[in-house]
Here is the input.
Amino acid sequence: MKFLYLLCILISTNLIAQPIKNVSNKKHLKKHLKSDEAKNIIIIGENHASAVAANIFPTIVKYLNKKNDLNKLIIECGPSEAYFYNKYLKTGNEKHLNYTIFGGSYKPWLEAWRTLYNYNKKLKKPLKVIGIDFDRARTMGYALISIFYKYDNPPIFISKLMDEIKTDDFYNTYSSGYPTKKDLEWMSNVKILLKNKLITLEKILEPKDYNLINQIIENKTINYNDEREQGLAKNAKQLIQNIDDKNFLILIGRNHAYYKPLIKKEKQMLAELLREVPSFNLLTGAIIFEGSNLRTSFNKFDKEKVLFEIKDKYPWKDYYYNIHKKAKQKLTLIPLNKDLNKLNYYLDYIIVAKKQPAITLRK
Here is the structure.
């Protein structure tokens, strides 16, 4: 009897713990990337406490790259962090992931980026990561070091900046987490310095390095504040409009993916701000959890919780039966049309995640 009891526990735990990497009905995404007249943009809204986004992101990227030649990946990070993702995709050296939040902190994201690296090295036109969120002081500093280090006999202002960033005092004073007052002051001063020296930098830097310095200087997202949503949208609009590519994939926290937020409904979110651009053909969606685990905080000692959003949460619970009968797989993409068309007030599609694991920290 004891054995049967333990077996039942093991089976039920296994059902929750097994990650699924393929999304049923992902062809709906492919169909959206069809316009030659507009910039085609797909948004996937994710929850950072779940492993689902990390598990499906490589699959979706590879699928859309093969079917639609999509290779521009816009993610929720600053330009400096995006620089290290691109360094990793080019070299496969995992030290670069240590300068990123997700790749450096979470096991499923480490595996996701490994998968993307192995895929990317076979491509003639490689994947490129673009960051539209705020920079973090330590990450920005180390990106600048990495850029400037390869240039012989740099100007004095660069040498002084590099000497400062290389010190233990810099590491101990500034953060790679949410920007503190000191972080914001340092980054602001460095941006002013770089902006004042742009003519000199343009003469000595390779175009790709100069463009990154410009992105760092012109970044409109500074911190978690009331202007963040507008900043994300301004960054995304400018970058998308200035790139020749037609197809873009945005992976971002799901509150940014809603046309209308479920709370603070008067606030304009990233998706709505992008939809206002006439030349943008937008499809936005989010991962919705049904019986899936989420980490309750980013402390490895805290317990996980199981979320039943389709059954319990507004507005999904009002359409529980309709959604439930369509969500036949562990991960199912469901367009919000026909009998679910009232829900496209919020999103164009949802990915229902059933019995999927929480995010786990790297050891």
